[in-house]
Each structure stands twice: as structure tokens, then as C-alpha cells.
Amino acid sequence: MKWQRILAILGAVALGAGAWRAGGWQGLALLGSGLMLWVMLYYTRLMTIMKRAVDRPIGYVGSAVMLNAKLKRGQPLLTVLALTRALGQRLSDEGAEPEVYRWRDPGESHVTAEFEGGRLARWQLERPAEAPETGPAQA
Prior knowledge:
This protein is 47% helix and 17% strand. The protein has a four-stranded antiparallel beta sheet with strand order 1-2-3-4, with helices on one face. It has helices at residues 3-23, 25-54, 64-70, 77-84, and strands spanning 89-90, 99-104, 110-116, 119-126. It is of the alpha+beta class. A hairpin with an 8-residue loop joins strand 1 and strand 2. The protein has two domains: 3-51, no CATH class; 56-126, Beta-lactamase Inhibitory Protein, Chain:B, domain 1.
């Protein structure tokens, strides 16, 4: 267990004890309804992101360069899915750590992202090689 999970459990126990001390069963019921509201808001956000992602091809993003600019180390996979509005093309094996996903744009640029523990660890933008420009034809 990570220290953050232990801290969250201790916080929940302290919150429950405070609710019990402040209002008994009514305080616990109020705490429970507040937690249920939070769970429902999270679920609604998750469903909204997935509904947007289902309408786009897997591994597609409007602009890989803009996605690269918006990515930050430590972002959860759900936040990256909200940014891309599409599921990523999975490059790693099922259950492998780190999870590797790729998003391409119409110009064949792509961003490859690695997630460790569900959080963005590394990413790389790759752009196609520019074709050499041909000068004006001379007669």
C-alpha cells in the first residue's frame, strides 16, 4: 500500500469519528450522503469521458503537437483520455507495466505515452520527416 492510501483511510476514519461525535447516526448519514454524492459525480465524469471517446477511432487525436503541450507528468490516464477524447492504441501487453499507448493525428505525428500505476510517467512526440522542398523548375 502506498502512503497516500494509508493516509486516505486514516482520514476517512477520522471523518467518520468526527461525524459520529457531532451528530451520532445523523452525522454518519450526512457523511454517507456526501460521499455518495462524490462517487456519483466521479461516475458521471467517467461516463462523459467514455461517451466522447466512443465516437472517435482508437488512437486518434486532432493534434499530436497540442496533446504534447498539454501533457504533464503524473496525470492520471482518465485525464489524458479527457484531453484526447479517444482511447489510445495499446502498444504494451495486457497487464504489463508500464502501460504504453499511442495517439496519432491526421499529419502522421504521434504521441507515445507510458503510464506507471495509472499515472503518466513519460511521453514522446514523434513527427514525420519533412520532405525536401523542391525549388522552382528552371528551363
